[in-house]
Design a protein that fits this description.
Distance between the termini: 18 Å
Number of domains: 2
InterPro entries: DUF2827 (IPR021234)
Structural class: alpha/beta
Protein name: DUF2827 domain-containing protein
Helix content: 25-40%
Organism: Paraherbaspirillum soli
Shape: globular
Number of strands: 13
CATH class of the largest domain: Alpha Beta
Strand content: 5-15%
Length: 382
């Protein structure tokens, strides 16, 4: 028997994930983190009784999962399907038969959109990156579409036209629980500390698409290097080893840069964020298009590292520059090189104060999700 309203402590919620490995890393993308953070946020809502993560793949759920299953219970769809008032489809898709079963049980179904899907589809079509081929299932039985703010500008209409209902922006949620846990064994718990000598610059864009790509961050480092080469020890570009080995265009562009020609740049593979910050980094340089809120930025700033970035939705974090202005970015970088160590403690405190507005326990976040749940439970099931 499903709850018909958002009565205090009555709602049982599932959030989908799609596991590919039993011990899947939390640091290869943000989807699993997003599911956990959302679960933590919903647990703060007065109407919620329980929240579980629901795996939609055949991968077994074992103790190898990188989160506490006591805190965030994780089950299969079969284990969850008869005991839910709301299913939030986030990291794993349910099919038509599963949807029909949930609807017969009176379960509300929410599409939680946290990826820039329109960009992914454009790239799939234009650049031969297969996603689904002819076998595309678009679920049109959602009771609501919730989307995080940074994807609304590019993907809202894509969601609405295909899924045939309006989409609404919901609070972006983040929690330091994973970066804190991963950093616990590091000196100073992985937090930034001043060090003498030239600085190690880091770029950690995924380089999967145009949204988060390393070229402009490398240009920012280059402009700073041209002015003050003595202050820069090295530029480290992660997730770029393949580009530096296989892309003739990338190699040709990078070879125009003094920082490359003078052997002050390296192009590396994949690393997890907390470890690379702690062991290899003094300053992080970033650039985004249409992704103006990002867990990576929050992880970096929570740990007190100077972040040079253009994410306008969190412009009060780190060292912000506008748009695609590489010159402005290089000025912010030079500012950080010259002055950050004098204010690093105040900077760390300020970053954590600002990030408080995204935490699951933030009163405004809890109140908005409570409102969304109440509205959802009062409407007629689609």
């Amino acid at each position: 028997m499903n709850a018909s309203t958002g009565a205090t402590g009555s709602l049982r919620i599932g959030i989908t994930i799609g596991l590919h490995q039993e011990n899947e890393s939390l640091w290869n993308n943000g989807i699993k983190q997003n599911a956990v953070y959302l679960a933590e946020a919903l647990k703060q809502c007065p109407s919620v009784q329980s929240v579980r993560l629901v795996n939609t793949t055949a991968v077994a759920i074992t103790a190898a999962l990188p989160w506490d299953q006591t805190r965030w219970p994780t089950v299969t769809f079969e284990q969850a399907k008869d005991d839910l008032d709301i299913m939030i489809e986030l990291g794993g898709q349910i099919d038509a038969n599963q949807t029909d079963y949930l609807k017969q049980q009176g379960t509300r179904l929410v599409s939680y959109c946290c990826g820039f899907e329109y960009v992914h589809v454009m790239q799939s079509v234009l650049f031969n990156r297969p996603m689904w081929g002819y076998d595309l299932f678009v679920n049109q039985r959602y009771d609501a579409i919730w989307m995080v703010p940074q994807v609304a500008t590019n993907s809202q209409s894509y969601f609405e036209t295909l899924r045939r209902r309006p989409a609404q922006v919901v609070p972006f949620v983040w929690d330091p629980v994973f970066v804190d846990e991963r950093s616990r064994g590091f000196e100073h718990h992985g937090e930034y500390r001043p060090r003498s000598g030239p600085r190690r610059l880091t770029v950690m864009e995924p380089n999967h698409d145009i949204v988060k790509f390393c070229m402009y961050p490398a240009f920012i480092a280059e402009e700073a290097f041209r002015r003050q080469p003595q202050d820069i020890a090295i530029l480290q570009v992660t997730n770029a080893e393949r580009l530096a080995r296989e892309s003739k265009e990338f190699i040709a562009v990078m070879n125009q840069l003094d920082i490359v020609r003078q052997h002050k740049a390296v192009f590396l593979g994949r690393f997890d964020t907390p470890q690379f910050l702690n062991q290899m980094t003094d300053v992080v340089i970033s650039h985004q298009i249409e992704n103006a809120l990002n867990y990576f930025y929050f992880d970096v700033c929570w740990q007190g590292y100077p972040l040079i970035h253009n994410a306008y939705m969190c412009s009060d974090l780190g060292y912000y520059y506008d748009g695609n202005d590489v010159q402005a970015g290089s000025r912010r970088l030079l500012d950080a090189l010259a002055n950050h160590d004098a204010v690093w403690q105040d900077y760390l405190t300020r970053q954590r104060q600002v990030l408080g507005r995204y935490l699951p326990g933030c009163p405004e976040v809890s109140a908005e999700y409570e409102r969304l749940l109440t509205t959802l439970m009062r409407q007629t099931i689609a």
